[in-house]
Fold each of these.
Amino acid sequence: MRFLKISTSILLTILSTVLLVLQSCSPNNVTLQNNYTKYFDDAALTGSFGLFDNGSGEFYIYNLAQFKDSSYTPASTFEIVNALVGIETGRIVDEKMMLSVDSAGPIRMDSAFKQTSVPYFVEVARRIGKDTMQHWLDSLQYGSKQMGTAVDSFWLNNTLTVRPDEQLGLVKKLYFGQLPFQKRTQEMVKMLMLQTANANYKLSYKTGLSYKQNGNAVVWVIGWIEENKHPYFFVLQTEGAASGDIKNASMSLLNKILKEQGFFEGKR
């Protein structure tokens, strides 16, 4: 009888897990935005986009297969994780911490984050150390969790890769303080994400630029937009010729998509 009870318990657990997976993968809360092809084509870019309405639980996605199945190096969007680990471990004291990392002279942590100062966060990663960084990659289950041999370049050289849907999960958990870090740590990085704030909306994001082995440039823009204290989380990933100004083109593309979704007027 004991064996039967254990078997039934295991069976119920398996069934519950299967049901949960099926519910999370349900297409009922996903709207495919195929009309966004025009924005990508106009910018001469390929890629994917995802927007999650936290209030309704609705996803709005362009290029679903790429959004959930393709991985890319996170580039400077990894500065979100780098900053979180640095603050949590005390390698970054606070957002005012100064470091001299290149010929330009000392730079504050908050400025380095907003300006995407790669040398600053290379130094932070070195101070964190390989074992500690690997621990946090594993704890976060971030992307492929691969570092290779160097602690100061793995997020830039295609060693570590991450999917767009994983990036969306990261910023959503950061916003709600659900990552495995202290509240102070998450609030500080959340504050650093804020780029624009006015009477109609608040826009918070982090960008990243890297290059694939085929020479193409890849750009990330990940974050959230708030209107009437309601958050919407987004991830834009683009790919295009390295010769163009792909970063500005990607930001323009993002603004067009968000505008078509009805943002920027404070009416969402």
Amino acid sequence: MQSSEADPVLAEIANSVMTITLNRPDRGNGWTPMVADRYFELMELAARSPEVRVIVLTGSGSAFCVGGDSEKVQQNSAEATIQRTSKRNYWFPLRIGKPIIAAINGACFGIGLQQALCCDIRIASADAKFSTAYARRGLVAERGMSWLLPRLVGTGHAMDMLLSARLIRAEEAERIGLVNRVVPAENLLDESLSYARQLAERCSPRSMRAMKLQCYLDLMATLSESYERSEEMLDTAVKEGDFKEGIQSWQEKRPPMFPPLPAELALMDFSEKR
């Protein structure tokens, strides 16, 4: 697969899963404004498409994303400059109302790591490696990294990764909770797609969206607020067709046939209460 500035991000749909591939392998899938805009466009397309129930993100070649493209950084004086040119906020993937699985196939640095953290599940190949990179470039924790990282790995591990910018190998990444699991490199995409298909085939799109919304809202809520919101959402869920289908399919010992997520629920608004 060869990279092209005209086609820096690829997408294909199969079995209700959209696979999005960062496609600049000769540059380690280095991030540019063109990559950002195309990537976010595809994310929104997946969110709104009735054909798509789950999204898998990966990189072409031997890297997931090495961070900001070094040539573009030099041209623009600082990595932060090129990243501010995107039309969308860099935590935009968190708003997608469908599960996003990062299949991390190699180097995952800087903005590449930030985007991996914006996915819901992270599956890494055994040769994946991670670094925040910022402290060794004279930068700061960018694009919400200082909010995302401590919530995944805890403050101690987050401070270690941010202050030292050291290399974290796949085994350590799994141990500290940075990734959900590690698989052999040759099995990465197959296992990621298999997991995605399980979600697409067995799980209610409405339920998955609702629980994504709950989890991200509850990161900023008290226990009582979380409890009250879950009660309100449960009252709604038991009246929906997905609940009836879930119970009926279980009783009839057959796969569920849940409808696609409605277009109006494609993107999540974190001011939502339901």
Amino acid sequence: MAALFLQTPPPKQGTPGVAAQDAPPASGGAGAPPSGGMLTMLLPFLILVPFLFLTFRRQKKEQEARKSLKKGDKVVTQAGLIGELIEADERVAKVKIAPGTTVQVLTSALGPFEPAAAGATDKQLSDLKEAKAGASDKK
């Protein structure tokens, strides 16, 4: 295949000092497709297949997690708002984000709020407070 790129093109018919060729070249050179043509055409699709598979799996898991949400659950939106699920239908959900404040969001933008991640944040905050208190005691 690399040999095709290294060959020089034949001269044009009307060029002076060049003998005219009556017969086509015997090697089939420029007219024949390269031997790896089919693989080269399918390679981008073969690369995309695993990514599509993983994307569909993730979407299915997220959809199942949204279906398992019920009234009173802690939820988080894609925008990062954390609140309590008041009611939900197939398209729109109402989320209470503060006392007396309810917002409507698309159900597809909701997900369950994992308290384990919040617990880690609380622990980090308490560690930071202890470190600051220890630093102020040393002064």
Amino acid sequence: MTQLITNINSEQLTMSSREIAQLTGKQHKHVLRDIRAMLDALGDGPDLGHVREDRDGRGYTVCFHLDKELTETLVTGYSIPLRHKVIKRLHELEQQQSTPGWLENLSPHARVVIEDLNSQVNHYRQETDRLNAVCNDLADNLKAGLTPVEFCRMLNGVNLNRVQPLLVERKRLLKTAHGYRSAAAYRDKLFTERRYLNKDKRPCEKVILTQKGAKWLYAQYEQGKLVMRKDWDGRFTHLLFDNEEKAA
């Protein structure tokens, strides 16, 4: 059970009933009783919006989390030594939330470097979100039975002759006498396999992309990890399958 939490979204400082019990030497069940009595006395209202109550599988309360104001209200009725322990702990938690001393002592140049790093992190976060959106878009439009080569045909500039050999080099696929198979570690994850008869009526298997495999392969494309044609124009673009069918 987490005893002390800080609400990341609102930065609301809270203290749990369990820690109050530890600081005051009271039994936890008695602290729970005191909290219920306080909440009943205060009644419903916006000031109680930050109270969090943890329950077990049977619906019994196992812990309360109170904000600073309610914590101070609770311990008002306690003895001065107990009240002092809790309020001292609240001050310690507030200090931990404040700006670290080392940050205040940074030189202007170091602050510029940190701001630049933050800017880069935000950029990569936005780029990741964009990439995930495109990957999901492609995977949602994935037609059943597409091989890696057929999928890459929808991606601008990919050298289709090098798709499967490259996947073999990276140990995602295995080359067989009659085509390709998925490496065991990626079967039913990135790829599945379909059986068919070749022109000589011999049973063969071909590798089919799963949705997860399509997302992975597109990420490889945008990260420049696929072999591109010599006449590639340098643009990472794709043609959705739905659009291709409409244009046909």
